[in-house]
Design brief:
The chain has 475 residues and is mainly beta. It has four domains: 78 residues, Immunoglobulins (Immunoglobulin-like, Sandwich); 85 residues, Immunoglobulin-like (Sandwich), CATH 2.60.40.10; 185 residues, Sandwich (Immunoglobulin-like); 80 residues, Immunoglobulin-like (Sandwich). A hairpin with a 4-residue loop joins strand 25 and strand 26. The strands form ten sheets. Strands 10, 12, 13, 15, 16 and 17 form a six-stranded mixed beta sheet that branches. Strands 27, 28, 30, 31 and 32 form a five-stranded antiparallel beta sheet that branches.
């Protein structure tokens, strides 16, 4: 039995040492990119090969501007001049080298022609035609219906006007064009849009965005409206406590700005989904639109700086979150940007004050609720304020805040050691606005909060002994 045990041990040991000294295969390189793109387009450039991300990558983008990407990539590159552009990469890993290149043809961006046609037709009819006032050779054109993620028709440019055919689905249509065989990221909007309506039928509207309204500290639903549809009013729906179930929370006349502030939801507490419908002059209501879901931000202090986490905004396609912050009542500043597939961020900034944050998403085209241009360009999350866990924060000897929640009066109890020490007390909203301020040398203080709006607040006490911060809720 002893001999058998030694033999098995030798087999296992021999297997392990052979794996330790396995040789690395030769590295390979390949660049993936489209053969064509247009001037000003964000072109995808990717590396494919056997080298790991830890290898050294030296890229040459032939005068292109790096929009995003680093190291191994992938990258988005923009060329602002036409011509043939050759991209090269040199990879070094464990003494091995690999070189490769790829050439793309950058062509002028497509000219913007006018979308034509549209109009109304009787229910059960053959629809109305939609076209484009002109086109270019070697360019492709795609017709979209608002609310759809893919095109409903496409044509190759002929150098003349285009006719996409007759369309029966009610809604608003727009067109985009790009160089043939290029990425869909190179699509360029054509001028104008047209609307198809059906007599006796109410077309479904769509939400443009749901953003945080800083004036009311509530969610604001924004949509575009189109004249000539005989709409009486719009109906705003919000998701209930059951997923997929929506309840009407208000309506807005067609003549008013197409915005609605939801006073029933506190954006600091939860993300919310909204849908929209339209009612015409005969009291017929359309189907509900696709939903939009708000971006809900949470902020907490970390050992170094602040930790941010949020949920994805849902409702339209975008590529970047922009992170904004301000210190105390100072100005807002753009601190960083991250890709749209990220939902967390750590800001290493360390400060002794209150830091307030919000997240922003910029639409490609703004919302125009009053039939004017450029009124709402960005979706913003709720604002959140946090105090750091810095060295001047006296967490071990904090203040007692009671009752919590409070309605009329808030009692603050300081450590006994703070008697006869001048303390400055401030009450702040979660977005960093100061509502109350007073001073005291007492170990106990009663603060009148009856005039404060309901919500969550910070109370901050500053003395020569340090800074203490606590949260409370005003009923």
């Amino acid at each position: 039995m002893k001999k058998i045990f030694i033999f098995l041990l030798f087999i296992c040991f021999g297997f392990s040492t052979s794996s330790l000294y396995a040789e690395t295969d030769s590295i390979t390189c390949y660049i993936y990119m489209y053969n064509k793109a247009s001037v000003g387009c964000n072109c995808y450039v990717g590396y494919s090969g056997t080298a790991p991300s830890s290898a050294i990558y030296v890229w040459n983008f032939a005068g292109g501007v790096i929009v995003s990407g680093s190291g191994q990539g992938p990258y988005y590159i923009r060329w602002d001049t036409a011509g043939y552009k050759t991209v090269t990469v040199h990879v070094t890993y464990q003494g091995q080298d690999c070189n490769t290149s790829r050439t793309t043809h950058i062509i002028p961006a497509p000219l913007a022609y006018n979308v034509t046609g549209g109009g109304s037709y009787p229910n059960g009819g053959s629809g109305v035609p939609i076209g484009l006032s002109g086109s270019q050779l070697n360019y492709n054109y795609y017709l979209y219906k608002v609310g759809n993620t893919s095109s409903v028709a496409s044509m190759t440019g002929s150098g003349n006007a285009l006719n996409f055919g007759n369309f029966t689905a009610a809604g608003t249509y727009y067109c985009m064009g790009k160089v043939d065989s290029s990425s869909s990221s190179c699509l360029v909007y054509m001028h104008d849009s047209v609307t198809v309506t059906i007599s006796g039928y109410v077309p479904t509207p769509y939400i443009c965005m749901v953003t945080y309204d800083t004036a009311t500290q509530r969610n604001k639903v924004v949509w575009n409206k189109y004249p000539g549809l005989h709409i009486s009013h719009y109906n705003v729906y919000k998701q209930t406590t059951h997923e997929g179930s929506f309840i009407k929370i208000g309506q807005v006349p067609f003549a008013s700005f197409s915005t609605f502030v939801d006073t029933t939801t506190n954006p600091i507490m939860i993300a919310q989904k909204y849908e929209l419908s339209a009612t015409d002059s005969t009291n017929s209501e359309s189907l509900l639109s696709s939903y939009h879901k708000t971006c809900h931000l949470e902020v907490s202090p970390g050992v170094q700086g602040f930790n941010l986490i949020w949920n994805q905004y849902e409702g339209f396609t975008f590529y970047t979150y922009r992170i904004h912050r301000k210190l105390n009542n100072g100005p807002w500043e753009l601190t960083d940007s991250v890709a749209s597939d990220q939902v967390s961020y750590t800001d290493p900034y360390v400060t002794s004050g209150l830091m307030t944050y919000y997240i922003a998403v910029t639409r490609t085209y703004p919302c125009n609720p009053s039939l004017k241009s450029g009124e709402y360009e960005s979706v913003v999350s709720n604002t959140m304020t946090s105090a750091p866990l810095g060295i001047d924060e006296v967490n071990s000897k904090g203040i007692a805040v009671y009752p919590n929640p409070a309605r009329e009066r808030l009692n603050l109890l300081f450590p006994a050691s703070q008697g006869n020490v001048l303390t400055c007390i401030g009450v702040y909203s979660m977005d960093g606005r100061k509502f109350l301020e007073q001073s005291s040398t007492q170990a106990r203080l009663e603060v009148d909060i009856s005039a404060l709006p309901a919500g969550m607040y910070f109370v901050r006490a500053v003395s020569k002994d340090g800074t203490r911060t606590e949260k409370f809720v005003k009923d």
